[in-house]
């Protein structure tokens, strides 16, 4: 691994723990382990072997890279795409045998055309708008909706395997209502798709939150991503966070009271201040919105990020941490000593969901696997 200004550390044992915990909660319901966005930034190469060892027979991807990587790693189970793909992507996914997510009749025609190009039918899950996400599902309650589903089923290149939906909100009540609506609408859609075929279609709509907090949403399988990485508000205490974001103190300087620090003069020193330079910034995925709001751990204690961030640098006030020296490890997410910068801390500081941050870190920074539990 090349050493960079910062890195992410992925706790492989935590992921194994989470997979086992989710499987225990689910009982006999099959788990589709979602590894989109390169396993939510944790790395398909690290996560796939864990899923395979746990006997997970189905994964969810978005990009073809994830599907091809899974096959290279020896995964022989089913691969389902959990978004609508472009025609070129669908054709390029042929060697990995990806089941496609059908987002309406026009999209189904693209899948059908791709099937002709690759010379075989393509397995497909037809999205319906039972939960009211109104993103890619066919609306069965709209005039012409049922006919649209039937027309998808009649396309020769589309081999309907499942009926699916996706929840708009992580709210128990909202999910429970959506699951009830999905129960009736997915039965209707399955009947339309399987007309004359007599095949039973798989029905699925649950994500981590739904699967763990509303068992009635589980149906034939659940598509679980965030929980595998320990990032869900459902089932508190059940799961372990799997990613830390780390760097080191590159420089420390002392400034007198009344100086402004960083761009736009947003911070003013109220006393003689020791400011530590950490060589990460918004171009590394530590978003600018965290400036002046986030805290980091250094020397096992919290210290505030004071400036508004540069592209590759941020400033931490370590005045109250006299022992901190150049070269000391800085934890921007995750545990250090007895404390931790949690995903909830980062969500509060950024006003964004944590996945928006850590998927970027996974893309932009070197990744180090850790095994053997918490240090
Ligand atoms: C990302 C995604 C999932 C997994 O959601 P989590 O909340 O991460 O468990 C399931 N289904 C679809 C369609 C998705 O896009």
From TrEMBL:
Record-linked Pfam families: Ala_racemase_C, Ala_racemase_N
Cross-referenced InterPro entries: Ala_racemase, Ala_racemase/Decarboxylase_C, Ala_racemase_C, Ala_racemase_N, Ala_racemase_pyridoxalP-BS, PLP-binding_barrel
Recorded GO CC terms: cytosol
Catalytic EC class: isomerase
GO molecular function list: alanine racemase activity; pyridoxal phosphate binding
Positions contributing to substrate binding: 135, 311
In-chain residues carrying the UniProt-annotated modification N6-(pyridoxal phosphate)lysine: 36
Gene Ontology biological-process entries: D-alanine biosynthetic process
UniProt KW keywords: Isomerase, Pyridoxal phosphate
Cofactors named for this entry: pyridoxal 5'-phosphate
Domain of life: Bacteria
PANTHER family: ALANINE RACEMASE, ALANINE RACEMASE, CATABOLIC-RELATED
NCBIfam families in the record: alr
Designated name of the protein: Alanine racemase
Gene that specifies this protein: alr_3
